[in-house]
Amino acid sequence: MISRMMGVLSARRNSLQEKEKGFTLIELLVVIVIIGILAAIAVPVYLNVQGNAKDSAVQSDLTNAKTALISVQTTTGSLPASAINISTVVSPADGYTKSANTGVISYVATTSSFCIAAKSVTGEVFYVTDTSGVLKAPAGVIPTFVAPAANCSAPNFP
User: Cα(25)–Cα(122) distance, rounded to whole angstroms?
Assistant: First the structure.
């Protein structure tokens, strides 16, 4: 019984080796098309996730700048004068940090209000005021400062 089964298996193995030598051209083309479709879907999604991460870094940097500015205001008793680059009025000791994805963070102040704005490497503009969290400016528009409203304009971006 065992020798009979071994004979059948051996015959089957020999027939497979003789007939099936590899993949057909059609099978290879189907695999290549499937890989191409998956790549066409995955690459734009990946790029979008990267852009969102860069924008989130800018939003975090603006929050850090706001915290640092309030720290300076608390220490000195008044807001520093407006500056095209906020790093000239706050320092890391005040809690200010900035990532590589953030352009210049600019700052405008009145006697009791302020606005901080920054442009991401993706081209998006974000801003924060003393009374609001981080907001995204409408496409192609740098916000205008109207204290204490939730929109503002920091000095022009260099």
Answer: 43
82, two tokens: 């407006």
**Gap between the Cα atoms of 153 and 147, Å rounded:** 10
CATH number at residue 131: 3.30.1300.70
pLDDT attached to residue 1: 65
Burial string for 76-111 (b: 16+ CB within 10 Å, else e) reads eeebbebbeebeebbeeebbbebeebbbbbbbbbee
Of 86, 70, 63, the C-alpha closest to 157 is 86
Structural domain harbouring 107 = 36-136
Q: What is the DSSP string of 139-152?
A: TT-PPPP-TTSS--
Could you say which residues of the chain have pLDDT below 70?
Answer: 1, 5, 15-21, 139-158
Over residues 104-129, the pLDDT tens digits come to: 888 888 777 888 888 888 888 888 88
Q: pTM of the entire structure? A: 0.66
105 strand-pairing partners: 118
Helix residue spans in the chain (DSSP H): 2-19, 25-76
Q: What torsion do the CA atoms of 30, 36, 38, 41 make, to the nearest 10 degrees?
A: -140
The total number of structural domains that make up the chain: 1
